[in-house]
Amino acid sequence: MVLALALFLVTYAALLVFSNYRAWIALASAALFVVLGILPFSKVFGAVDWNVIMMIAGTMGTVHYFIQSKMPALMADHIIDRMPNIKWIIIALSLFAGIISAFVDNVATVLMVAPVALVVSRKLNISPVPAIIAIAISSNLQGAATLVGDTTSILLGKQAGMNFADFFWYEGRPGLFFIVQAGAILSGLILMVIFRKYKHKISLHEKTAVHDHFPTVMLMGTIVLLILASFVPEERKPGITNGLICVGVMLVGLLREMVRSGRPLQAVKSILREVDHLTLLLLAGLFVIIAGISEAGVVDEIGRTFASVSGGNVFVAYTLIVWASVLLSAFIDNIPYVATMLPVTAVIASHLGVNPTVLYFGLLVGATLGGNLTPIGASANITGIGILRKNGCEVKNRDFMRISIPFTLTAVTTGYLLVWLSWGLGL
After folding, report:
1. Average pLDDT for residues 288-299, to the nearest whole number?
2. What percent of the chain is predicted at pLDDT more than 70?
3. CA distance 156 to 339
4. Whole-number Å distance between alpha carbons of 377 and 388
5. CA dist 179 to 107, 254, 362, Å?
6. Sign of the C-alpha dihedral computed for residues 311, 316, 322 and 328 taken in this order
7. Nearest Cα to 216, choosing from 384, 73, 56?
8. Which helix (H) or strand (E) holds 406?
9. Residues 77, 226 contacting (CB under 8 angstroms)
10. For residues 401 and 386, what is the distance between their CA atoms, to the nearest angstrom?
Protein backbone atom coordinates (compact mmCIF):
# COMPACT_ATOMS: atom_id res chain seq x y z
CA MET A 1 0.00 0.00 0.00
CA VAL A 2 2.83 2.42 0.88
CA LEU A 3 4.58 1.80 -2.45
CA ALA A 4 1.31 2.27 -4.39
CA LEU A 5 0.48 5.49 -2.54
CA ALA A 6 3.99 6.89 -3.05
CA LEU A 7 3.91 6.10 -6.78
CA PHE A 8 0.45 7.65 -7.07
CA LEU A 9 1.52 10.87 -5.31
CA VAL A 10 4.63 11.19 -7.47
CA THR A 11 2.49 10.63 -10.56
CA TYR A 12 -0.02 13.28 -9.53
CA ALA A 13 2.75 15.79 -8.80
CA ALA A 14 4.27 15.10 -12.21
CA LEU A 15 0.87 15.59 -13.88
CA LEU A 16 0.62 19.01 -12.25
CA VAL A 17 4.17 20.16 -13.02
CA PHE A 18 4.55 18.72 -16.53
CA SER A 19 1.04 19.33 -17.87
CA ASN A 20 2.18 19.07 -21.50
CA TYR A 21 3.24 15.48 -20.97
CA ARG A 22 0.29 14.21 -18.92
CA ALA A 23 -0.59 11.32 -21.22
CA TRP A 24 2.95 9.92 -21.25
CA ILE A 25 3.34 10.37 -17.49
CA ALA A 26 0.09 8.48 -16.87
CA LEU A 27 1.10 5.66 -19.21
CA ALA A 28 4.60 5.40 -17.67
CA SER A 29 3.10 5.30 -14.17
CA ALA A 30 0.58 2.66 -15.25
CA ALA A 31 3.44 0.54 -16.59
CA LEU A 32 5.27 0.89 -13.25
CA PHE A 33 2.19 -0.28 -11.36
CA VAL A 34 2.32 -3.45 -13.43
CA VAL A 35 6.12 -3.93 -13.43
CA LEU A 36 6.32 -3.49 -9.65
CA GLY A 37 3.61 -6.12 -9.19
CA ILE A 38 1.04 -3.76 -7.63
CA LEU A 39 -1.50 -4.57 -10.36
CA PRO A 40 -1.38 -8.00 -12.04
CA PHE A 41 -0.87 -7.84 -15.80
CA SER A 42 -4.00 -9.96 -16.29
CA LYS A 43 -6.14 -7.10 -14.90
CA VAL A 44 -4.73 -4.30 -17.08
CA PHE A 45 -7.07 -4.67 -20.05
CA GLY A 46 -10.12 -4.94 -17.80
CA ALA A 47 -9.06 -1.85 -15.84
CA VAL A 48 -9.52 0.39 -18.89
CA ASP A 49 -13.15 1.39 -19.43
CA TRP A 50 -13.42 0.98 -23.19
CA ASN A 51 -16.98 2.30 -23.20
CA VAL A 52 -15.70 5.66 -21.91
CA ILE A 53 -12.80 5.72 -24.38
CA MET A 54 -15.10 4.94 -27.32
CA MET A 55 -17.71 7.51 -26.27
CA ILE A 56 -15.15 10.30 -26.10
CA ALA A 57 -13.45 9.34 -29.37
CA GLY A 58 -16.72 8.98 -31.26
CA THR A 59 -18.17 12.24 -29.96
CA MET A 60 -14.97 14.11 -30.91
CA GLY A 61 -15.27 12.87 -34.49
CA THR A 62 -18.95 13.78 -34.82
CA VAL A 63 -18.33 17.24 -33.37
CA HIS A 64 -15.60 17.79 -35.97
CA TYR A 65 -18.14 17.31 -38.78
CA PHE A 66 -20.70 19.47 -36.93
CA ILE A 67 -18.26 22.38 -36.64
CA GLN A 68 -17.13 21.91 -40.25
CA SER A 69 -20.74 22.29 -41.44
CA LYS A 70 -20.83 25.85 -39.99
CA MET A 71 -24.20 25.16 -38.37
CA PRO A 72 -23.05 26.53 -34.96
CA ALA A 73 -21.97 29.78 -36.65
CA LEU A 74 -25.39 30.12 -38.30
CA MET A 75 -27.12 29.52 -34.96
CA ALA A 76 -24.95 32.24 -33.41
CA ASP A 77 -25.85 34.60 -36.27
CA HIS A 78 -29.54 34.14 -35.54
CA ILE A 79 -28.92 34.92 -31.87
CA ILE A 80 -27.05 38.15 -32.68
CA ASP A 81 -29.74 39.22 -35.13
CA ARG A 82 -32.36 39.08 -32.38
CA MET A 83 -30.48 40.88 -29.60
CA PRO A 84 -30.94 44.65 -28.92
CA ASN A 85 -27.36 45.47 -27.82
CA ILE A 86 -23.93 44.07 -26.98
CA LYS A 87 -24.86 43.22 -23.37
CA TRP A 88 -27.59 40.88 -24.54
CA ILE A 89 -25.39 39.51 -27.32
CA ILE A 90 -22.72 38.53 -24.77
CA ILE A 91 -25.32 36.98 -22.45
CA ALA A 92 -26.98 35.17 -25.36
CA LEU A 93 -23.66 33.89 -26.76
CA SER A 94 -22.59 32.64 -23.32
CA LEU A 95 -25.92 30.85 -22.82
CA PHE A 96 -25.69 29.50 -26.37
CA ALA A 97 -22.18 28.21 -25.66
CA GLY A 98 -23.56 26.54 -22.54
CA ILE A 99 -26.38 24.82 -24.42
CA ILE A 100 -24.00 23.56 -27.13
CA SER A 101 -21.52 22.46 -24.46
CA ALA A 102 -24.11 20.23 -22.80
CA PHE A 103 -23.77 17.96 -25.86
CA VAL A 104 -20.38 18.93 -27.33
CA ASP A 105 -16.91 19.00 -25.78
CA ASN A 106 -16.23 22.26 -23.89
CA VAL A 107 -13.07 23.13 -25.83
CA ALA A 108 -14.80 22.48 -29.17
CA THR A 109 -17.64 24.76 -28.05
CA VAL A 110 -15.25 27.63 -27.27
CA LEU A 111 -13.57 27.15 -30.65
CA MET A 112 -17.00 27.41 -32.29
CA VAL A 113 -18.44 30.41 -30.46
CA ALA A 114 -15.41 32.57 -29.62
CA PRO A 115 -14.81 33.67 -33.26
CA VAL A 116 -18.33 35.14 -33.30
CA ALA A 117 -17.47 37.25 -30.24
CA LEU A 118 -14.28 38.39 -31.96
CA VAL A 119 -16.22 39.59 -35.01
CA VAL A 120 -18.73 41.46 -32.85
CA SER A 121 -15.95 43.10 -30.84
CA ARG A 122 -14.12 44.22 -33.98
CA LYS A 123 -17.29 45.76 -35.42
CA LEU A 124 -17.83 47.75 -32.23
CA ASN A 125 -14.15 48.47 -31.61
CA ILE A 126 -14.31 47.06 -28.07
CA SER A 127 -12.17 44.50 -26.23
CA PRO A 128 -13.22 40.89 -26.87
CA VAL A 129 -11.77 39.77 -23.52
CA PRO A 130 -14.94 39.95 -21.35
CA ALA A 131 -17.12 38.27 -23.98
CA ILE A 132 -14.76 35.33 -24.56
CA ILE A 133 -14.24 34.83 -20.82
CA ALA A 134 -18.04 34.65 -20.41
CA ILE A 135 -18.27 32.13 -23.27
CA ALA A 136 -15.49 29.94 -21.82
CA ILE A 137 -16.85 29.77 -18.27
CA SER A 138 -20.43 29.18 -19.49
CA SER A 139 -19.17 26.36 -21.68
CA ASN A 140 -17.40 24.75 -18.75
CA LEU A 141 -20.45 25.13 -16.49
CA GLN A 142 -22.71 23.00 -18.71
CA GLY A 143 -20.25 20.12 -18.99
CA ALA A 144 -21.94 18.37 -16.06
CA ALA A 145 -25.44 18.65 -17.55
CA THR A 146 -25.50 15.50 -19.72
CA LEU A 147 -23.68 12.21 -20.11
CA VAL A 148 -21.75 13.48 -23.16
CA GLY A 149 -21.20 17.05 -21.95
CA ASP A 150 -17.74 16.47 -20.50
CA THR A 151 -15.25 13.71 -19.77
CA THR A 152 -16.05 14.04 -16.06
CA SER A 153 -19.74 13.30 -16.78
CA ILE A 154 -18.81 10.19 -18.76
CA LEU A 155 -16.63 9.08 -15.83
CA LEU A 156 -19.57 9.59 -13.44
CA GLY A 157 -21.83 7.60 -15.74
CA LYS A 158 -19.34 4.74 -15.66
CA GLN A 159 -18.91 4.82 -11.88
CA ALA A 160 -22.61 5.13 -10.97
CA GLY A 161 -23.99 3.07 -13.87
CA MET A 162 -25.90 6.12 -15.16
CA ASN A 163 -27.20 6.36 -18.71
CA PHE A 164 -28.09 9.42 -20.79
CA ALA A 165 -31.64 9.74 -19.41
CA ASP A 166 -30.41 9.48 -15.81
CA PHE A 167 -28.80 12.91 -16.07
CA PHE A 168 -32.31 14.34 -16.55
CA TRP A 169 -34.30 12.19 -14.11
CA TYR A 170 -32.66 9.79 -11.68
CA GLU A 171 -34.25 7.53 -9.08
CA GLY A 172 -37.48 9.51 -9.18
CA ARG A 173 -35.86 12.93 -8.75
CA PRO A 174 -34.50 15.70 -11.01
CA GLY A 175 -31.01 14.85 -12.26
CA LEU A 176 -27.88 16.93 -12.75
CA PHE A 177 -29.22 18.54 -15.92
CA PHE A 178 -31.85 20.60 -14.08
CA ILE A 179 -29.49 21.40 -11.21
CA VAL A 180 -26.91 22.75 -13.68
CA GLN A 181 -29.59 24.77 -15.50
CA ALA A 182 -30.61 26.44 -12.23
CA GLY A 183 -26.96 27.39 -11.70
CA ALA A 184 -26.73 28.64 -15.29
CA ILE A 185 -29.77 30.90 -14.90
CA LEU A 186 -28.53 32.50 -11.68
CA SER A 187 -25.00 32.84 -13.09
CA GLY A 188 -26.53 34.47 -16.16
CA LEU A 189 -28.04 37.11 -13.88
CA ILE A 190 -24.54 37.73 -12.51
CA LEU A 191 -23.27 38.28 -16.07
CA MET A 192 -26.10 40.77 -16.67
CA VAL A 193 -24.84 42.82 -13.74
CA ILE A 194 -21.21 42.59 -14.86
CA PHE A 195 -22.03 43.67 -18.43
CA ARG A 196 -24.71 46.21 -17.55
CA LYS A 197 -22.77 49.09 -19.19
CA TYR A 198 -22.36 47.35 -22.57
CA LYS A 199 -25.18 49.12 -24.42
CA HIS A 200 -23.72 49.39 -27.95
CA LYS A 201 -25.98 48.23 -30.76
CA ILE A 202 -25.03 45.95 -33.65
CA SER A 203 -26.67 44.56 -36.76
CA LEU A 204 -25.78 41.70 -39.09
CA HIS A 205 -25.79 42.23 -42.85
CA GLU A 206 -25.47 38.59 -43.87
CA LYS A 207 -25.66 35.25 -42.15
CA THR A 208 -23.36 32.24 -42.38
CA ALA A 209 -24.34 29.89 -45.19
CA VAL A 210 -24.78 26.21 -44.30
CA HIS A 211 -24.82 23.81 -47.26
CA ASP A 212 -24.51 20.53 -45.37
CA HIS A 213 -27.08 19.62 -42.71
CA PHE A 214 -26.07 15.98 -42.36
CA PRO A 215 -23.57 16.58 -39.47
CA THR A 216 -26.38 18.21 -37.49
CA VAL A 217 -28.47 15.08 -38.08
CA MET A 218 -25.48 13.00 -36.91
CA LEU A 219 -25.17 14.91 -33.65
CA MET A 220 -28.90 14.77 -32.98
CA GLY A 221 -28.89 11.10 -33.95
CA THR A 222 -26.17 10.38 -31.37
CA ILE A 223 -28.27 12.01 -28.67
CA VAL A 224 -31.49 10.21 -29.69
CA LEU A 225 -29.74 6.82 -29.86
CA LEU A 226 -28.17 7.35 -26.42
CA ILE A 227 -31.61 8.19 -25.03
CA LEU A 228 -33.18 5.11 -26.63
CA ALA A 229 -30.34 2.91 -25.36
CA SER A 230 -30.97 4.20 -21.83
CA PHE A 231 -34.37 2.44 -21.83
CA VAL A 232 -32.84 -0.97 -22.57
CA PRO A 233 -32.15 -2.94 -19.35
CA GLU A 234 -28.45 -3.16 -18.55
CA GLU A 235 -28.44 -6.96 -18.59
CA ARG A 236 -29.77 -6.98 -22.16
CA LYS A 237 -27.10 -4.81 -23.80
CA PRO A 238 -23.30 -4.87 -24.05
CA GLY A 239 -21.29 -2.82 -21.57
CA ILE A 240 -19.89 -0.77 -24.45
CA THR A 241 -23.30 0.13 -25.93
CA ASN A 242 -22.88 3.91 -25.57
CA GLY A 243 -19.37 3.72 -26.97
CA LEU A 244 -20.58 1.71 -29.97
CA ILE A 245 -23.29 4.32 -30.65
CA CYS A 246 -20.84 7.25 -30.57
CA VAL A 247 -18.19 5.51 -32.67
CA GLY A 248 -20.83 4.12 -35.05
CA VAL A 249 -22.29 7.55 -35.81
CA MET A 250 -18.79 8.95 -36.34
CA LEU A 251 -17.99 6.11 -38.77
CA VAL A 252 -21.15 6.89 -40.76
CA GLY A 253 -19.88 10.45 -41.13
CA LEU A 254 -16.42 9.20 -42.10
CA LEU A 255 -17.77 6.83 -44.76
CA ARG A 256 -19.92 9.63 -46.18
CA GLU A 257 -16.92 11.96 -46.29
CA MET A 258 -14.79 9.29 -47.99
CA VAL A 259 -17.40 8.92 -50.75
CA ARG A 260 -18.11 12.65 -51.11
CA SER A 261 -14.49 13.75 -51.27
CA GLY A 262 -13.27 10.89 -53.43
CA ARG A 263 -10.14 10.90 -51.24
CA PRO A 264 -10.73 8.17 -48.64
CA LEU A 265 -7.21 8.22 -47.19
CA GLN A 266 -7.34 11.99 -46.69
CA ALA A 267 -10.74 11.69 -45.00
CA VAL A 268 -9.36 9.11 -42.55
CA LYS A 269 -6.29 11.24 -41.81
CA SER A 270 -8.52 14.27 -41.21
CA ILE A 271 -10.77 12.56 -38.67
CA LEU A 272 -7.80 10.98 -36.88
CA ARG A 273 -6.29 14.45 -36.44
CA GLU A 274 -9.50 15.67 -34.79
CA VAL A 275 -9.61 12.89 -32.18
CA ASP A 276 -7.62 13.98 -29.13
CA HIS A 277 -5.39 10.94 -28.75
CA LEU A 278 -3.53 12.41 -25.78
CA THR A 279 -6.73 12.71 -23.72
CA LEU A 280 -7.63 9.11 -24.56
CA LEU A 281 -4.14 7.90 -23.59
CA LEU A 282 -4.28 9.92 -20.38
CA LEU A 283 -7.60 8.32 -19.43
CA ALA A 284 -6.35 4.82 -20.27
CA GLY A 285 -3.32 5.36 -18.04
CA LEU A 286 -5.44 6.80 -15.24
CA PHE A 287 -7.81 3.83 -15.33
CA VAL A 288 -4.87 1.47 -14.80
CA ILE A 289 -3.38 3.67 -12.03
CA ILE A 290 -6.69 3.82 -10.17
CA ALA A 291 -7.10 0.06 -10.52
CA GLY A 292 -3.58 -0.27 -9.05
CA ILE A 293 -4.21 1.87 -5.96
CA SER A 294 -7.56 0.11 -5.49
CA GLU A 295 -5.85 -3.26 -5.69
CA ALA A 296 -3.35 -2.12 -3.04
CA GLY A 297 -6.10 -0.90 -0.70
CA VAL A 298 -5.22 2.81 -0.99
CA VAL A 299 -8.68 3.88 -2.17
CA ASP A 300 -10.37 2.11 0.71
CA GLU A 301 -7.96 3.64 3.22
CA ILE A 302 -8.50 7.18 1.87
CA GLY A 303 -12.26 6.67 2.00
CA ARG A 304 -12.09 5.37 5.57
CA THR A 305 -9.94 8.33 6.63
CA PHE A 306 -12.28 10.84 4.97
CA ALA A 307 -15.32 9.27 6.63
CA SER A 308 -13.53 9.47 9.97
CA VAL A 309 -12.60 13.16 9.48
CA SER A 310 -16.23 13.98 8.72
CA GLY A 311 -17.23 12.42 12.03
CA GLY A 312 -19.68 10.09 10.31
CA ASN A 313 -21.85 13.07 9.35
CA VAL A 314 -23.06 12.89 5.73
CA PHE A 315 -23.63 16.66 5.41
CA VAL A 316 -20.09 17.40 6.62
CA ALA A 317 -18.64 14.83 4.18
CA TYR A 318 -20.75 16.26 1.35
CA THR A 319 -19.69 19.83 2.14
CA LEU A 320 -16.01 18.88 2.31
CA ILE A 321 -16.20 17.06 -1.04
CA VAL A 322 -17.93 19.96 -2.83
CA TRP A 323 -15.78 22.82 -1.61
CA ALA A 324 -12.48 20.91 -1.57
CA SER A 325 -13.23 20.01 -5.19
CA VAL A 326 -13.88 23.66 -6.03
CA LEU A 327 -10.56 24.71 -4.50
CA LEU A 328 -8.52 21.92 -6.09
CA SER A 329 -10.17 22.20 -9.51
CA ALA A 330 -9.29 25.87 -9.63
CA PHE A 331 -5.65 24.86 -10.06
CA ILE A 332 -5.54 21.28 -11.37
CA ASP A 333 -7.19 19.51 -14.30
CA ASN A 334 -10.49 18.01 -13.22
CA ILE A 335 -10.21 14.83 -15.33
CA PRO A 336 -7.53 13.06 -13.24
CA TYR A 337 -9.05 14.52 -10.07
CA VAL A 338 -12.57 13.21 -10.77
CA ALA A 339 -11.24 9.89 -12.07
CA THR A 340 -9.40 9.43 -8.76
CA MET A 341 -12.12 10.73 -6.45
CA LEU A 342 -15.12 8.81 -7.83
CA PRO A 343 -14.03 5.44 -6.38
CA VAL A 344 -12.91 7.20 -3.18
CA THR A 345 -16.35 8.82 -2.92
CA ALA A 346 -17.99 5.40 -3.28
CA VAL A 347 -15.91 4.10 -0.36
CA ILE A 348 -16.78 7.16 1.75
CA ALA A 349 -20.49 6.53 1.13
CA SER A 350 -20.03 2.87 2.03
CA HIS A 351 -18.39 3.75 5.37
CA LEU A 352 -21.14 6.28 6.09
CA GLY A 353 -23.78 3.74 5.14
CA VAL A 354 -25.56 6.00 2.62
CA ASN A 355 -26.51 6.07 -1.06
CA PRO A 356 -23.44 7.52 -2.82
CA THR A 357 -25.51 9.62 -5.27
CA VAL A 358 -25.44 12.80 -3.18
CA LEU A 359 -21.64 12.57 -2.87
CA TYR A 360 -21.18 11.74 -6.56
CA PHE A 361 -23.26 14.72 -7.60
CA GLY A 362 -21.51 16.96 -5.08
CA LEU A 363 -18.13 15.89 -6.48
CA LEU A 364 -19.17 16.70 -10.04
CA VAL A 365 -20.69 20.06 -9.07
CA GLY A 366 -17.53 21.08 -7.20
CA ALA A 367 -14.99 19.73 -9.69
CA THR A 368 -16.66 20.69 -12.96
CA LEU A 369 -18.05 24.08 -11.97
CA GLY A 370 -15.11 24.90 -9.69
CA GLY A 371 -12.64 24.82 -12.57
CA ASN A 372 -14.01 28.20 -13.63
CA LEU A 373 -12.43 30.10 -10.75
CA THR A 374 -9.05 30.60 -12.42
CA PRO A 375 -7.70 30.85 -15.99
CA ILE A 376 -5.92 27.49 -15.64
CA GLY A 377 -8.71 25.57 -13.92
CA ALA A 378 -10.37 24.25 -17.08
CA SER A 379 -9.33 23.44 -20.63
CA ALA A 380 -12.11 25.69 -21.97
CA ASN A 381 -10.63 28.66 -20.10
CA ILE A 382 -7.12 27.95 -21.38
CA THR A 383 -8.50 27.67 -24.91
CA GLY A 384 -10.36 30.98 -24.65
CA ILE A 385 -7.27 32.77 -23.38
CA GLY A 386 -5.22 31.20 -26.16
CA ILE A 387 -7.66 32.57 -28.76
CA LEU A 388 -7.40 36.03 -27.21
CA ARG A 389 -3.61 35.86 -27.17
CA LYS A 390 -3.53 34.93 -30.86
CA ASN A 391 -5.62 38.03 -31.50
CA GLY A 392 -3.26 40.31 -29.59
CA CYS A 393 -5.15 40.44 -26.29
CA GLU A 394 -3.35 39.57 -23.07
CA VAL A 395 -5.65 38.50 -20.23
CA LYS A 396 -4.67 39.45 -16.70
CA ASN A 397 -5.71 37.18 -13.84
CA ARG A 398 -7.69 39.95 -12.18
CA ASP A 399 -9.64 40.61 -15.40
CA PHE A 400 -10.53 36.95 -15.67
CA MET A 401 -11.40 36.47 -12.00
CA ARG A 402 -13.49 39.65 -11.86
CA ILE A 403 -15.97 37.72 -14.01
CA SER A 404 -15.20 34.12 -13.06
CA ILE A 405 -15.36 34.33 -9.25
CA PRO A 406 -18.92 35.71 -8.86
CA PHE A 407 -20.09 33.50 -11.75
CA THR A 408 -18.53 30.32 -10.30
CA LEU A 409 -19.52 30.90 -6.68
CA THR A 410 -23.11 31.52 -7.74
CA ALA A 411 -23.24 28.36 -9.87
CA VAL A 412 -21.53 26.15 -7.28
CA THR A 413 -23.61 27.44 -4.37
CA THR A 414 -26.79 26.83 -6.35
CA GLY A 415 -25.70 23.30 -7.23
CA TYR A 416 -24.49 22.65 -3.67
CA LEU A 417 -27.86 23.59 -2.18
CA LEU A 418 -30.03 21.87 -4.80
CA VAL A 419 -28.12 18.59 -4.73
CA TRP A 420 -28.40 18.45 -0.95
CA LEU A 421 -32.09 19.41 -0.94
CA SER A 422 -32.85 16.79 -3.62
CA TRP A 423 -30.58 13.97 -2.49
CA GLY A 424 -29.21 14.68 0.97
CA LEU A 425 -32.17 15.45 3.19
CA GLY A 426 -33.19 12.49 5.27
CA LEU A 427 -29.84 10.68 5.02
Report:
1. 82
2. 97
3. 8
4. 17
5. 22, 36, 11
6. negative
7. 73
8. helix 397-419
9. no
10. 16
Neighbours of 163 (CB within 10 A): 20
Q: What is the dihedral of CA 327, 328, 333, 334, to 10 degrees?
A: -80
Q: Which residue has the higher pLDDT, 333 or 211?
A: 211
The pTM of the whole model exceeds 0.90: no
Do 196 and 79 meet the contact criterion of CB atoms below 8 Å apart? no
Q: How far apart are CA 119 and CA 394, in angstroms?
A: 18
Using CA atoms, how far apart are residues 5 and 421, in angstroms rounded to an integer? 35
**Whats the size of the chain, residue-wise?**
427
Q: How confident is the model at residue 9 (pLDDT cuts 50, 70, 90)?
A: confident
Number of domains the chain contains: 1
Is the model's pLDDT at 322 over the cut of 90?
A: yes
What kind and span of H or E run contains 169? strand 169-170
Write the CA distances from 182 to 74, 170, 176, integer angstroms.
27, 17, 10
* pLDDT tens-digit series, residues 110-135: 877 787 787 777 766 778 888 899 99
Give the domain extent around 277.
Answer: 2-424
In three-state secondary structure terms, 126 is coil
Residue whose C-alpha is closest to residue 53's, from 340, 333, 275, 383: 275
For 146-171, write each residue's pLDDT tens digit: 887 887 888 898 888 888 889 999 98
In 3D space, the residue among 89, 85, 65 whose CA is nearest the CA of residue 77 turns out to be: 89
Q: Is the pLDDT of residue 406 over 90?
A: yes
Please, where are the H alpha helices in 128-274? Answer: 129-141, 151-160, 176-194, 214-230, 241-261, 264-274
